[in-house]
Design goal:
mainly alpha; disordered N terminus; 542 residues; 0% strand; single chain
């Protein structure tokens, strides 16, 4: 009797099924079950927060951000696939890196980054940055003045946090360098005038985002009414001004500022010391820096208005509320780059070939920021696929029962933790604001305003200090400061403001008078910093 043989095609089919079952059993059985959407077993549980916790913890411990983020991403893939090798690989690659790099919004931000890097390179090679630095040295006499100038410029550029980070950095680096302000301190000032300013500016991309999350209400009106209760943003501005005017620092920042006074702007960072090479043109003028920056601001504002339909008949406020920051910033920066090249060529300070040579230098300068952004976006995709948002939403809904007066403080903490773990404040808005509206809309409208503001403040707080936040990454890039150095040096400052904000929200749940609470809050902030100043006792030379 001849041995029984299966047809070759059937063998191939069985082998394919067995291989798939061995490597990705969950996905195979999900496909056989009527193409139902696959849901991991750890979906919407505390495990969903493990990947960002691993990434952030390792980054802070090892001071190495790339491998830390990658390990967090891999952990997200393992949890999603049930520790299947094939499932993990495909989820990280397809649903992670490929997905975020093919997202139109993300691509627009990357284009904006590269063009901004190119414009900075152009301004350096044209001599504009050096000329501005020489002018600023004559006009700005002290370190305090240099830091206050950076704060003022950051407040003036309130349209968008991405634009704020890179523009303030490129303009103020020559000024702060000449007055021996460390890059760590500059990156903090940039970061603290980015999201915290945008979240209290009615005409900004952030106001547009928040307004869109308030369903069933006038979102823009609620945003404006919530501004006086946004304690974290307001106290952050007060913090920057006070530590600058009182001329003291504490925590890791004190070491960096002390070293900067001795001429070392980077302390233990080696990577950024290589970025100081500039191409000074002796014919450069201050206008060669100021004009391109002004053109960039105008073009980006017009680009955002265009993306919101302003030139198609939509009113100004609605156009800004409906604008696409990615499209607007990409459009604006492209036109600003072309106009800048035209200006330099007409002024004969640079040839067209020299202008084009700046493109690879600008791209190279932004490679670290692009890499970290890509890893951060992918980590967020892993966290989303595990249902972190649903887990937090369910937690806060359960806590809303008998803790009404304490909810603003609780929401502030939850918003800060969620934004810190996920690296996104806008995603935190989208999760928490609809829940807050649903809880308070028909019961306590005033507490709803305070709680919405607490949500925004907490989200900005977590986003401000998170190592995987795009704003934090861009602040590091704008100041040309090592990313982990920026995170570790500003963390004590963020925690200080967060603690005062939390106490203020605790009181605000009971004392709902906006003016009384602002007086109490600012008094607490001033008193806290005064005590820290007395303890630190490390005055620097003005």
């Amino acid at each position: 009797m001849k041995p029984f043989k299966l047809p070759a095609r059937l063998w191939q089919t069985l082998l394919l099924i067995l291989t798939a079952a061995a490597f990705s059993p969950l996905s195979v059985f999900a496909a056989e079950a009527g193409e139902e959407a696959y849901t991991p077993s750890v979906y919407a549980t505390a495990w969903a927060l493990l990947p960002p916790i691993i990434a952030i913890g390792l980054a802070l411990i090892t001071k190495e951000v790339y491998s830390s983020l990658f390990l967090g991403i891999v952990m997200g893939g393992l949890l999603y696939s049930g520790f299947s090798f094939e499932g993990t690989t495909m989820h990280v690659l397809e649903d992670g890196f490929i997905s975020v790099l093919s997202d139109s919004y993300n691509v627009g931000i990357l284009i904006f980054l590269v063009i901004l890097g190119t414009m900075v390179s152009l301004m350096n090679r044209a001599g504009g940055s050096a000329a501005f630095g020489r002018w600023a040295q004559k006009k700005i006499k002290t370190r305090v003045g240099a830091q206050l100038s950076a704060i003022a410029l950051g407040i003036l550029i309130f349209i968008d946090d991405y634009f704020n980070c890179l523009t303030v950095g490129s303009v103020m680096r020559p000024v702060t360098d000449s007055h021996k302000v460390s890059r760590a301190k500059l990156s903090y000032l940039i970061d603290a005038t980015a999201a915290p300013i945008c979240i209290i500016a009615p005409i900004s991309s952030w106001a547009a985002a928040v307004s869109g999350f308030v369903e069933g209400e006038d979102g823009f009106s609620i945003f404006v009414r919530a501004i006086p209760y946004n304690y974290y943003a307001l106290f952050t501005i007060a913090m920057m001004i006070l530590i600058t005017v009182w001329n003291f620092d504490y925590g890791p920042m004190a070491k960096y500022e002390t070293n900067a006074l001795k001429g070392d702007l980077f302390s233990d960072s080696k990577e950024e010391k290589d970025t100081q090479r500039t191409f000074e043109n002796p014919n450069g003028r201050v206008l060669d820096l100021i004009l391109p920056v002004l053109v960039l601001i105008v073009c980006c504002v017009l680009g955002m208005l265009y993306s919101g339909g302003f030139f198609s008949g939509v009113d100004f406020v609605s156009a800004f509320a409906g604008s696409d920051a990615s499209v607007g910033l990409a459009l604006g920066s492209i036109f600003a780059l072309l106009l800048t090249i035209l200006y330099y060529c007409l002024r004969r300070i640079m040839s067209f070939r020299e202008c084009c040579d700046c493109l690879p230098y600008g791209f190279k300068a932004m490679v670290p920021a692009i890499l970290i952004l890509t890893f951060a976006w992918t980590l967020k995709a892993m966290t989303d696929s595990l249902g972190a948002a649903d887990f937090v939403a369910g937690t806060i809904s359960q806590a809303a029962g008998n803790l009404m007066a304490l909810l603003p403080a609780i929401i502030f903490l939850i918003g800060a933790f969620l934004a810190f773990a996920t690296g996104t404040s806008w995603g935190t808005f989208g999760i928490l604001i609809p829940i807050v509206v649903a809880v308070f809309q028909n019961t306590d409208p005033q507490l709803m305003i305070i709680s919405i503001s607490a949500c925004m403040a907490g989200a900005v707080c977590g986003d401000h200090c998170s190592p995987i936040s795009d704003t934090t990454i861009m602040a590091s890039a704008g100041a040309q400061c090592e990313h982990v150095t920026h995170v570790t040096t500003q963390l004590p400052y963020v925690i200080t403001v967060a603690a005062v904000s939390f106490v203020t929200y605790l009181i605000a749940g009971f004392v709902r008078n906006v003016f009384i609470m602002l007086v109490i809050g600012f008094a607490l902030m001033i008193a806290t910093l005064y005590v820290i100043k007395q303890i630190a006792g490390n005055k620097q030379t003005a």
